Amino acid sequence: xxxxxxxxxxxxxxxxxxxxxxxxxxxxxxxxxxxxxxxxxxxxxxxxxxxxxxxxxxxxxxxxxxxxxxxxxxxxxxxxxxxxxxxxxxxxxxxxxxxxxxxxxxxxxxxxxxxxxxxxxxxxxxxxxxxxxxxxxxxxxxxxxxxxxxxxxxxxxxxxxxxxxxxxxxx
Length: 171
Fold this sequence. Notes:
Elements: E1 2-6, H1 12-22, H2 29-35, E2 41-48, E3 51-61, E4 64-72, H3 81-95, E5 100-106, H4 110-118, E6 122-131, E7 136-143, H5 146-152, H6 161-169
Parallel strand pairs: 4-5
Antiparallel strand pairs: 1-2, 2-3, 3-4, 5-7, 6-7
Helix pairs in contact: 3-5
């Protein structure tokens, strides 16, 4: 069973592990812990049969949500979980008042770019040499109408709908 819920302090160790497995320059454990105290930060975790297999962090400021990081455990990739998690994050962002969402993606990460394109993100800029580890550019992607994307992809939410609703209500 797949569930999506708010990240808790007890989840940060598993989230950090996925972060390290997923990124060349991972956020530190301390930074992830700090996000729990950041009023604009909202982190969700995705569980499969009780194990955290992914997470998404975002900052919501007024009508904009910015994905800070999103990752699925390497052995769970390719099963559509990233798209489900992104959909859940869009729903959460909308519940906090966001109407649009943005993120950066490595210019050579075509797998992620394909997923973002399927979720209606469009390239709206480029950050030159954004990634200091490789000097790679970041593509700046925007979804300017999350509500349409959420509705269009409603079938993605069926597996975790009850858990997400609980998260959105703050229970």
